[in-house]
Amino acid sequence: MGLRATLTLEVSPAGYYAWRERPESARATSNSALLADIRQVYRESGERYGSPRIHAVLRTQGRGASRGRIERLMRRHGIRAIMAPPRRVRTTDSRHNLPIAPNLIARDFTAAAPNRVWLADITYIPTAEGWLYLAAVMDLFSRKIVGWAMRHHMQVELVSSALSMAIRQQRPGAGLIHHSDRAVQYASHEYRAALAATGITASMSRKADCYDNAPMESFFHTLKTELIHHRQYQTRPEAQRDIFAFIEGFYNRTRLHSAIGHIAPIQMELKAA
């Protein structure tokens, strides 16, 4: 607004200049400071956090701003969590005559302590060299990825390596349930023998029902929307390095998880300890 506009609006020049020189309101000052904090958390999350997680982080830092206020500021300034449309490739081959374990979970995605229930699944990552396959094992209590392996194939060795890592790191006691889909890799004699040798009880989803393993599906969705779909990998080793950093450096240690009260998986595991 200039001086000519002030005359049109019947505002005196003196009043206009007084308005221009007036100090910023307390609310505007507070919003500016809050916006700077929002941008800081947003950058530190790799632009992956939306308003719920940014609100949770700021709350731990002693900021009392409501989630609605944070959401309004983010919308006003165009701050949005990165997202990408899903792409699907078939990773489950359940057309086999191998034994199928009963579904012991029945969509009850709760666990009283670490190493009571593990979930397992396979996903894929595109590279210029071809697909890279990721097998992961999640502890249901903490949502921590306790075992993982990456290969250029989906053979039993892929999932066995992820399981071996989980057993080696977690050293589970008796009574652990291992839940997966009905893929031939998990139903194989080799994999079932590895479970039995450690005293782990197998559980499997119903046929072609991804919701029976929803937390693992959620992890893969997070991995892809927050990382994979924003990269163009030329080689499998390049993708492996990125995924390693995401799982061990961000997801397990830093990323706030809504299912466990907006804390990181390792924090949840430490609380139980």
TrEMBL record:
GO MF term (any one): nucleic acid binding
GO BP: any one term: DNA integration
SUPFAM superfamilies xrefs: Ribonuclease H-like (SSF53098)
Superkingdom, natural source: Bacteria
Pfam families reported for this sequence: HTH_21 (PF13276), rve (PF00665), rve_2 (PF13333)
Entries under InterPro entries matching the protein: HTH-like_dom, Integrase_cat-core, RNaseH-like_sf, RNaseH_sf, Transpos_IS3, Transposase_IS3/IS150/IS904
PROSITE patterns: INTEGRASE
Occurrences of domain Integrase catalytic (ranges): 110-273
Protein name: Transposase InsO and inactivated derivatives
Organism: Bradyrhizobium shewense
